[in-house]
Amino acid sequence: MTKEARALRELQERLRGCRECPLGDIGTQTVGGEGRGPLMLVGEAPGDHEDIQGRPFVGPAGRLLDSALERLGWPRETVYLTNAVKHFKFEMRGKRRIHKTPAQREIAACHHWLDEEIALLRPKAIVALGATAAASLLDRKVAVMRERGNWLVRGDGRPVLVTLHPSALLRLRGVEREEAIERWLEDLRRGTEPPPGI
Fold this sequence. Notes:
The chain is an alpha/beta fold. The chain has helices spanning 3-16, 48-53, 60-72, 104-121, 131-138, 144-147, 166-170, 174-190; strands at 39-43, 80-83, 90-93, 96-99, 125-129, 151-153, 159-163.
């Protein structure tokens, strides 16, 4: 096992015991990142499927992301997938657990975990999937529709590309969804090409 892999495993072990915000007491488990490679994709938070399986991006949005990665020729294990928030936030509707957007204090409580992942993996580029991920990565609010497809720079100098979270595309139908997915693929493709000097 490499030094990086050992450090990442130790981080995951520490993360499992996290109770730094109330979400640590309501979810089934903490969901850390997985994968390797020079590109990191950061989403918002685990959903119901992720909370049950303990892996990022394994629900409906994850299946759409897997399809995109396949079309781009990027095996899933060659990118690092994680979320800005590591526990599932939900409300009950009947017997179903429905996703809720994490509050600012919950995002802030998880911020150091994401920073530790970045420090360990040293990605050449990061793709922010949605507003929560972008805000956590850049320490400011980000208007995703205005900034999507643009390269921004974190405080540590790492380039961040902003685009939509795949769950946003799942809400669309028919031709509108197909066109939105094609544009999203163009955004993701740019993730391997940060401009020189960033």
